[in-house]
Design a protein that fits this description.
By secondary structure, the protein is mainly α. The chain has one domain. The chain has two helices and no strands. α1 runs antiparallel to α2. The protein is rod-shaped, with a radius of gyration of 19 Å.
Amino acid sequence: MSAECSRMTESAIFGLMDLHLKRTLQTISSGRKALNKLRQNPDSALESTIPDNDTISWQKAEEKPRKIERRMLQAIVAAGSTPDS
């Protein structure tokens, strides 16, 4: 395999990885918006009876996507791309 072909292959692989990582970020953003909407419009039938339990549950639910998002951003940068391109 020639050096030029090897570079093209590497570029294609990193391009595909970049696309998948960015799509994951879009999915995380959509999920965070859905969580925020649910939190603003709670269903009283689903509320727990333990005081502050819902607050703790929401905090945990919101922290998970934030952690994943940070890791995805790091992966995009590691792949040689920028998060917003």
